[in-house]
User: Which sequence fits this backbone?
DNA sequence: GTCTATAATCAGATAGAC
DNA sequence: GTCTATCTGATTATAGAC
């Protein structure tokens, strides 16, 4: 009984500390890159002694991988399914909205993922080969069916999906550049809506579809 | 006379070494990031003693900045002008082709630039605020004029340009991911044409324009 | 101009007290 | 479980011989 009470309490501290460390690590890794981040800096941000970080995560690399895995979980939880019975315009528009939303809500996750890929995806090659690949293939298949059913113009499904990814992630990964060019300190709440709309308009019309705000 | 001959010869070695170092540095920085790259690794790749690198460039950071500046020069040399008398379809298509060409020819330049921006653009903030910003404003102005003249659909010029940038750079910055997903080791010569065409088709149609390969 | 040897610093990891 | 003190190795940069 005593033991149970003790360990559950300890577990709570453990959970809280682990979470703090992961958040702090994500911040630092995005600010300075993997090598440029010191365990000391993560410890300072998490307000814990450096040795504790290495107590919870055995090494810097294991901590980094844990951060990346958290991001993959977040990714997976968000992307819904599409079916050939669905309306392409609605689904593409929804996808753009969700991804822009992610870019605004979790810019650091997007950036860390981007850096990982730019540096050759050493830690997530397997994820790309399996989960991401099968997700993409499914989507390509549905889009191909939509085209066969005459629901949209015949375009390369894979390039379309790459375009959806890149044009939405741009607002997270390159926010520094985008904000300087827009002469802003940070995004405004209304930006999300305006950008989603602009992207939807170009991409949907590009597929021979009509975005909802232009219907009727 | 002697002195001139000597210095010109020395200058030649200097030029060659400088070039070698810059190329080697670009490779290493893209592979391992700024902090993850050691001067030793650059020296090894350039086949020079480590101290020589620091003789030519006074510090690691100065070398990094030199690499970045080389990339900016490359960028500037490529992007042409557009005028309101020009045909939007032709110009957008040309721009996409040129940028995809850059992505295939200089993927490392694109990646290094991307990493720099993701990490907060500490070394190129000024470039973005001045050169890049004025370039963007000019282009936005011409596109606005095109819209006023009824040459294309009314879309947000800035988001259009961001989309052109992001969707083309994606093939350089994320080549690792793209190639794994396409189940390839490297891009084929025909990919460039196919991708340019797919992007042009979606984006031009998205602007209410007709891509050249669909005309008539 | 070129290169060897070395100084000075800082990182990740660990041992061991509490 | 938590934290202080320390070890080990690597890195940038420099001093000085050639």
Assistant:
């Amino acid at each position: 009984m005593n033991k149970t009470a003790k360990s559950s309490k300890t577990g709570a501290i453990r959970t809280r500390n682990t979470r703090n460390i992961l958040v702090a690590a994500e911040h630092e890794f995005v600010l300075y890159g993997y090598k440029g981040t010191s365990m000391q800096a993560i410890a300072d941000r998490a307000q814990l002694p450096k040795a504790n970080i290495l107590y919870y995560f055995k090494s810097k690399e294991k901590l980094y991988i844990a951060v990346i895995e958290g991001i993959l979980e977040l990714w997976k939880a968000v992307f819904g399914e599409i079916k050939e019975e669905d309306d392409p315009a609605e689904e593409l528009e929804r996808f753009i909205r969700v991804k822009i939303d992610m870019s605004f809500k979790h810019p650091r996750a997007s950036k860390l993922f981007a850096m990982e890929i730019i540096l050759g995806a050493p830690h997530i090659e397997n994820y790309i080969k399996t989960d991401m690949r099968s997700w993409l293939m499914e989507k390509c298949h549905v889009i191909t069916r939509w085209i066969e059913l005459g629901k949209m113009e015949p375009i390369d499904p894979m390039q379309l999906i790459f375009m959806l990814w890149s044009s939405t992630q741009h607002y997270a990964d390159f926010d520094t550049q985008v904000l300087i060019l827009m002469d802003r300190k940070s995004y405004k709440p209304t930006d999300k809506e305006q950008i989603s709309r602009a992207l939807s308009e170009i991409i949907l019309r590009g597929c021979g579809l009509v975005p909802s705000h232009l219907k009727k």
About this structure: Chain B touches chain A through 55 residues (CB under 8 Å). Residues 2-68 of chain B form a domain with the Arc Repressor Mutant, subunit A fold (CATH 1.10.10.60). The mean pLDDT of chain B is 93. Chain B is about 75% helix and 0% strand.
